[in-house]
Amino acid sequence: MELEGGAVQVEDTGAADISPSVALLPSNGASALDGTQPPAPRSLSSPTSAAGSGSSSYSLSPPPTRRRGRPAATARARRPTRRSRRRSTTRVGSEAWRLEEGEIEEVPVGGNASEDSVAVDRANPLSPLTLRAIKATADAIVGPSDGVATVLVKIGPIPLQLEDFLLTLPNQWFNDELVNAYVELLRVRQIKFASSVRRKPHYIFFNSFFFDKLTEKGSFNYDAVRRWTRKEVVLKARKIFIPINVTDAHWFLAVVVPAAGRVELYDSIGRAQEHMGKNLARWAKKEASSHGLPKKDWSVVTMPCRVQENNDDCGVFTCRHMELMSKGEAVVSWGGSSSYHRRRIAAELLSGSL
Q1: Cβ pair 296, 263 in contact under 8 A
Q2: Nearest-angstrom CA–CA distance, 224 and 154
Q3: pLDDT digits (tens, 9 = 90+) for 190-240
Q4: Cα-Cα-Cα-Cα dihedral sign, residues 45, 47, 49, 50
Q5: DSSP 76
Q6: For residues 163 and 150, what is the distance between their CA atoms, to the nearest angstrom?
Q7: What is the CATH number of domain 8-351?
Q8: Each residue of 297-350: pLDDT tens digit?
Q9: Residue 199 to residue 193: CA distance in whole angstroms
């Protein structure tokens, strides 16, 4: 069930191969050995008034003027705006996607695994990518040299352009479009599973603009997000997933657990974000009061999770944490290099399925 303003109820499941409405655009026909140099991470325009406004038509789709990147390190200089940035075109070749020693790109002999658009075994989070996925991701990073925006795929109403997919390359920072499109894949997979087993969904996903609106202009504003949940008592859900950005500098995941009265924070750089968690606890109390639910003491807990090894992968880890937790899997010691998970996320987005 999709709630007003971007909240979506879903069911706890590990089911795979469920595709949302995805519109693939024609390939530009370029060789996979040609490419576009990944752009330097960039700072983009501030949210428009429509961002996270709670439109009932669809709210996971970010406004087209707001394509901000999400670096993991705050020490970097502020990035130029998208309008002023010029993309230089060079060859990236096979080094664009780097795998750690021992990881392979070949599809094992046997079966029809190469037919899958993502991995040999979708249920395995570390399964080798198929040749089809390898080719698709290589082709996706090839773009025109004139800087013209190229939409490669549309996940529901969220268009992903060439510049978005370039951010899935190593050393780049995920933006709202990538994270919200991935949330869309998660919600469609889960909501279809819930429908197939005729169970009431237990999970809710908010897009990246929920927390932005809740704390807009540096102050707590419950009324700014009240419309998002006015038609549903979201605190009856098992968990509420909320990807959060810290001053356009870092992604981390917050998970509201209503039954326990707890806000869990999963931060891949191990930084304390309790002040942001307290805002979510305050929101939960307001939400309970508005729906006549019993009062509860809320706590904010920083949870253990896998730590990233560089300054660029916070968006990757946030997406993977949501994906793993939505299947009931642990997020403390999941394996695989960040390069592998970046390319798998790119393949999943291109295919429109998890």
Answers
A1: no
A2: 28
A3: 888 777 776 766 888 999 999 999 998 889 999 999 988 888 889 998 999
A4: positive
A5: S
A6: 8
A7: 3.40.395.10
A8: 999 999 999 989 898 999 999 999 999 998 888 888 788 889 999 999 999 999
A9: 9
